């Protein structure tokens, strides 16, 4: 314990002295180390214990914090199990990983390794979501213990300034001491550490520090680092270098070559220049070629003194972003200057924003025109292919157009032409699919010219009648889920055409597929992503593959795996339109789930290849923002990204005749973009619904600009999922065993009341809904556990009958509350995914709609149908304004764990007419007083519901059965 106390004291002293050192030293080594995060190496070791020893196809997907992911194999084995040792370029404080197969079957979710000393090591067991820093279950790490240590530490400083630098070192759980660098060799300086009379020591700790008279901790490099690899006699030899946190056991791995780490255009007259070790700014020796002259070189890191490793090169004139500039420095070499932060400046947007409506290809029988936005490219070509399989095509140079565009025209009829774009950025060529491509080849790897008129069903573009948002009852569905069950009775399984099949039946003659949805009575079908996404291989559709599709690849073309022939670009378009048309003919509107907030990979995306650094959001340190949790956030606040989103949504609405858009992780976007989306759709059809996940996400955007619930009041006509009522009904989705109103959590009545009122009176720190059309009222969705699975987790001791009652109570509250009602497909027959809370790539056995279960739960389905009829039949459940809600809903006195309210006057001025709604979440019958004596017509009783009377209540009170809803009509 004494050693621990000493080291804690040292840490406090070092923090204080480090702050002083920043102001009084020529340059801060600590700051220098932090700036060199782009240099050096990071090593991670992942131990994995599989459940059955079968490791075929299993690997680890590793992603440095703020960086892109990559698959690495398990290459070793130890007593614990399989092992992967991975070297990453750059130094990182945290590295994420996923244990998975190439088809994205996962063992657990995202896990993270904290890096110390340039290394991180963890242990993972199959089926266990924990990530261990030591072997779990008493399986001790195979590290020998020593009674004496003899360690030689070699230290290299780029600046060759070793005066005062020494080591503070300590044995594991022991007391620290100072050790000087007393030796010198070709690497640099060296120190020998000898310790004896130790007990059970497995590692040796050290800190590199600088001592001056009166202050032993004037500066330091990094914090605690540990030597962990020793020979049998307790000896070890290690190498460390200034600015690199990694401990090396092989000196040949240490990179001591002076080099330029970074040279990027960050402003129209500004280049950021960075090296891997400091130099004198006054004698910088930097030169620039490519037609630009240097006006001034200044330090970029706010360090005191003249020495730094990062400067700003200020040029005399504006830089031409299409030019190739090279920067050099004596002994450091020469590099091409990359386009950097300049593309993320307002000046760039103002200079290059293109307002035309002809981006992509414009087809006619006489000619096809192409226009590409790529303002940082020095050259651009149209690449034409004869087949989707061709690796090399014919290239046609494009001509420079206005405001950063490139254009070209092909005379004649080029319907079906397969193409891509190539652009030269700096000294490199990038090839990419046209972001505006409306048709693509198999797996979306090339674009195609399409005659869209040939893909339309008859009378397709006639829109459905205007619709009021509050009248919507949305049914969220995955295309594949609907039809894959063996007893679905649907022929085109997993396809757009499967959704369009009519009059299908399943077990015991129950209606399935489209017929079931129509019979249920919902108004809108919301489809999980149906644009072209990455993770399903369209060339292997004979093999089972599943994904929700939240990994966008080509935003303006349908997903090929849902078509009967993904190799022919027109087929997926025709079949998707046929699906929409058939749903419309069955009086069902169609909402498309759109995922503009991120792409499957920033580096591989067509956006990044064509205009690097522009379309994505970045942190201050230059790493990709990751509020989405998938490695990148798009930057909707930039003019051309905003334009793309607005035009893409408008295209889908007009070309596919869609009736709504659900924005995934809408809180990543900005308010202005969402308002422009709403404005553009209003011009097409004001009754098109816009809804989204208004979560407050950690992305570098001003909080007042985020399109989340807190800013809902700034976005008229845009609805947000209300997680307030969701979690108050069943418990938090982030805590498996947390309960809510229906499953036994006390004191939730007030939260339920606010949810019933569509959250219009929530505190502004939670949401600022102005009207009920801005609120999606729901209890389950494709994300997280289904309601049935959640109830099994929170109430494992309860009977199936009790859980059914809880489930029906929750659904009845959704359908008798204000706002827009939302149901997850299968919720009507209490869908289960076997406890899988994140089934985004789970097999069909987990995700498919179980039509046998629908037959087994027919009574529950009938109850849901009755509730839908009840909602549709009574405008009181679908009020249009917050003022109406406040005026017409009056909550009544009620026992604990019950909620009762009076809908006075059916939301009109005749206050003699009432609807009374009573929810009882107790496991016993409760007596509730009514606002006036009967007669009251019973429209719902917990078992049945609808618009026809199920009975009459005459007195001033009513007995409400356990875990049930009663709706009374006082007419």
UniProtKB/TrEMBL annotation:
Lineage: superkingdom: Bacteria
DNA-binding in keyword set: no
TM annotation in the entry: 9-29
GO biological process, one term: carbohydrate metabolic process
InterPro entries: Carb-bd-like_fold, CBM41_pullulanase, GH, GH13_cat_dom, Glyco_hydro_13_N, Glyco_hydro_b, Ig-like_fold, Ig_E-set
EC number: 3.2.1.41
Molecular-function GO terms, alphabetical: carbohydrate binding; pullulanase activity
Gene3D superfamilies listed in its UniProt record: 2.60.40.1110, 2.60.40.2320, Glycosidases, Golgi alpha-mannosidase II, Immunoglobulins
Record Pfam families: Alpha-amylase, CBM_48, PUD, pulA_all-beta
Glycosyl hydrolase family 13 catalytic domain segment(s): 500-871
Top-level EC class: hydrolase
Alphabetical keyword list: Calcium, Glycosidase, Hydrolase, Membrane, Signal, Transmembrane, Transmembrane helix
Keyword Transferase attributed: no
Matches recorded under NCBIfam families: pulA_typeI (TIGR02104)
Family, as annotated: Belongs to the glycosyl hydrolase 13 family.
Protein name: pullulanase
Organism: Fictibacillus solisalsi
């Amino acid at each position: 314990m004494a050693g621990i106390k000493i080291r804690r004291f040292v840490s406090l002293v070092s923090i204080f002295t480090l702050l002083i050192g920043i102001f009084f030293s020529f340059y801060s080594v600590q700051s220098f180390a932090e700036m060199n995060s782009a240099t050096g190496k990071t090593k991670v070791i992942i131990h994995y214990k599989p459940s059955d020893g079968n490791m075929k196809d299993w690997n680890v997907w590793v992603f440095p914090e703020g960086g892109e992911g990559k698959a690495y194999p398990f290459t070793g084995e130890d007593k614990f199990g399989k092992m992967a040792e991975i070297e990453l370029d750059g130094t990182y404080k945290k590295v994420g990983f996923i244990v998975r197969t190439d088809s994205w079957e996962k063992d657990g979710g995202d896990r993270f390794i904290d890096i110390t000393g340039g290394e991180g090591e963890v242990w993972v067991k199959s089926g266990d979501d924990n990530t261990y820093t030591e072997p779990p279950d008493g399986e001790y790490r195979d590290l020998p213990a020593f009674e004496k240590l003899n360690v030689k530490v070699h230290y290299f400083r780029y600046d060759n300034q070793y005066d005062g630098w020494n080591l503070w070192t300590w044995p594991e759980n022991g007391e620290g001491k100072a050790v000087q660098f007393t030796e010198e060799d070709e690497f640099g300086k060296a120190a020998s550490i000898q310790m004896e009379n130790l007990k059970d020591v497995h590692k040796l700790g050290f800190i590199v520090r600088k001592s001056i008279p009166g202050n032993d901790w004037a500066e330091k490099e990094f914090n605690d680092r540990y030597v962990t690899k020793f020979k049998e006699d307790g000896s070890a030899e290690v190498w460390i270098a200034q600015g690199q946190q990694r401990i090396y056991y092989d000196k040949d791995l240490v990179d001591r070559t002076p080099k330029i780490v970074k040279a990027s255009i960050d402003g129209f007259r500004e280049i950021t220049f960075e090296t891997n070790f400091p130099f004198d700014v006054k004698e910088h020796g930097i030169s620039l070629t490519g037609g630009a002259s240097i006006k001034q070189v200044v330090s970029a890191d706010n360090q005191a003194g003249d020495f730094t490793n990062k400067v700003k090169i200020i040029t005399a004139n504006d830089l031409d972003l299409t030019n190739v500039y090279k920067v050099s420095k004596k002994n450091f070499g020469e590099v091409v200057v990359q386009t950097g932060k300049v593309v993320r400046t307002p000046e760039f947007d103002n200079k290059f924003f293109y307002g035309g409506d002809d981006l992509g290809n414009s087809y006619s029988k006489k000619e096809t025109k192409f226009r590409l936005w790529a303002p940082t490219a020095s050259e651009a070509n149209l690449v034409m292919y004869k087949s989707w399989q061709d690796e090399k095509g014919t290239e046609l140079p494009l001509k420079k157009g206005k405001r950063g565009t490139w254009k070209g025209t092909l005379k004649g009829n080029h319907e079906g032409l397969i193409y891509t774009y190539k652009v030269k950025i700096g000294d490199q060529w990038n090839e990419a699919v046209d972001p505006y491509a409306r048709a693509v080849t198999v797996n979306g790897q090339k674009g195609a010219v399409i005659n869209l008129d040939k893909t339309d069903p008859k009378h397709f573009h006639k829109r459905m009648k205007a619709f009021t948002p509050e009248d919507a009852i949305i049914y969220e569905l995955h295309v594949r889920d609907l039809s894959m069950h063996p007893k679905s009775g649907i022929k085109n399984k997993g396809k757009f055409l499967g959704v369009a099949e009519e009059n299908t039946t399943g077990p015991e003659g129950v209606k399935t597929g489209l017929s079931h949805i129509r019979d249920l009575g919902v108004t809108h079908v919301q489809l999980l992503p149906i644009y072209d996404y990455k993770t399903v291989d369209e060339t292997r559709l004979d093999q089972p593959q599943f994904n929700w599709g939240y990994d966008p690849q080509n935003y303006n073309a349908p997903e090929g795996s849902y078509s009967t022939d993904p190799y022919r670009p027109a087929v997926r378009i025709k079949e998707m339109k046929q699906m929409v048309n058939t749903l419309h003919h069955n009086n069902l509107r169609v909402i498309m789930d759109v995922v503009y907030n991120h792409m499957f990979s920033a580096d591989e995306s067509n956006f990044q290849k064509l205009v690097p650094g522009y379309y994505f959001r970045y942190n201050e340190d230059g790493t990709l923002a990751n509020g989405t949790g998938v490695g990148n956030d798009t930057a909707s606040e930039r003019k051309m990204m905003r334009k793309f989103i607005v035009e893409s949504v408008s295209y889908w609405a007009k070309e596919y005749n869609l009736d709504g858009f659900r924005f995934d992780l809408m809180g990543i976007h900005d308010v202005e973009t969402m308002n422009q989306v709403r404005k553009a759709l209003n011009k097409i059809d004001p009754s098109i619904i816009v809804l989204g996940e208004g979560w407050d996400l950690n992305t570098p955007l001003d909080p007042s600009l985020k399109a989340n619930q807190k800013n809902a009041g700034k976005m008229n006509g845009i609805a947000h999922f209300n997680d307030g009522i969701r979690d108050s009904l069943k418990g938090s989705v982030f805590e498996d065993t947390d309960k809510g109103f229906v499953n036994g959590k006390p004191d939730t009545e007030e939260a339920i009341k606010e949810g019933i009122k569509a959250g219009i009176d929530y505190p502004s720190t939670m949401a600022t809904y102005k009207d009920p059309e801005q609120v999606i009222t729901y209890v389950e969705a494709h994300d997280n556990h289904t309601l049935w699975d959640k109830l099994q987790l929170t109430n494992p001791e309860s009977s199936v009958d009790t859980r059914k009652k809880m489930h029906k109570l929750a659904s009845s509250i959704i359908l008798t509350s204000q706002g827009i009602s939302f149901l997850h497909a299968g919720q009507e027959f209490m869908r289960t995914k076997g406890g899988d809370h994140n089934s985004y790539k789970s097999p069909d056995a987990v995700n498919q709609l179980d039509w046998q279960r629908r037959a087994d739960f027919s009574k529950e389905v009938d109850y849901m149908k009755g509730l839908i009829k009840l909602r549709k039949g009574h405008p009181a459940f679908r009020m249009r304004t917050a003022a109406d809600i406040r005026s017409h809903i009056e909550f009544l006195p009620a026992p604990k764990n019950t909620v009762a309210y009076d809908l006075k006057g059916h939301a009109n001025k005749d206050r003699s007419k009432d609807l009374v709604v009573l929810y009882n979440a107790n496991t016993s019958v409760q007596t509730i007083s009514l606002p006036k004596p009967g007669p009251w017509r019973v429209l719902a009783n917990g078992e049945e519901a609808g618009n026809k009377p199920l009975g009459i209540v005459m007195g001033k009170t009513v007995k409400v059965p356990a875990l049930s809803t009663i709706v009374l009509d006082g007419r």
